[in-house]
């Protein structure tokens, strides 16, 4: 699920950036630092929407620290959420999932190139790069990553 969050980040700059374009450097450094990063508590920071406040710099050894308040779009997966994704790899136990979460008519074909899951009844194939729709059945949060387990064993889920 996507959220709009108000966040704070401390950005450190080297004195060589203390020019009339200081604010531009701070904006760039903030975006480079936080966009695409993951905090287990918040989720993945997708994009910085606005910078609300840049605090006064605090001189430290070798540069200065600036406290920046900003708004960002954050994504965090939740149990029961239906999402679209791309298969990263396929192996005997599934496509980064437990076999019990894949419909019983799908079978692993190790002789296919590339190896894939195939359904004889519906002539469907799940292989690396395939677009699928799945329902998240569980998540695990680490300090810098979020892992999710999903199923395609329900109506309207599977290959898109």
TrEMBL record:
InterPro entries: NA-bd_OB-fold, RNA_pol_Rpb7-like_N_sf, Rpb7-like, Rpb7-like_N
Keyword annotations from UniProtKB, A to Z: DNA-directed RNA polymerase, Nucleus, Transcription
Keyword Transcription: yes
Subcellular locations according to the entry: Nucleus
Signal peptide: none
One GO CC term, this protein: RNA polymerase II, core complex
GO molecular function: single-stranded DNA binding; single-stranded RNA binding; translation initiation factor binding
Main localization (coarse): nucleus
Keyword Nucleus among record annotations: yes
Domain RNA polymerase Rpb7-like N-terminal: 10-62
SUPFAM superfamilies tied to this protein: N-terminal, heterodimerisation domain of RBP7 (RpoE), Nucleic acid-binding proteins
Superkingdom field: Eukaryota
CDD domains: RNAP_II_Rpb7_N
Single GO biological process annotation from the record: positive regulation of nuclear-transcribed mRNA poly(A) tail shortening
Family membership: Belongs to the eukaryotic RPB7/RPC8 RNA polymerase subunit family.
Record protein name field: BQ5605_C005g03245 protein
Organism: Microbotryum silenes-dioicae
Upper taxonomic lineage: Eukaryota, Fungi, Dikarya, Basidiomycota, Pucciniomycotina
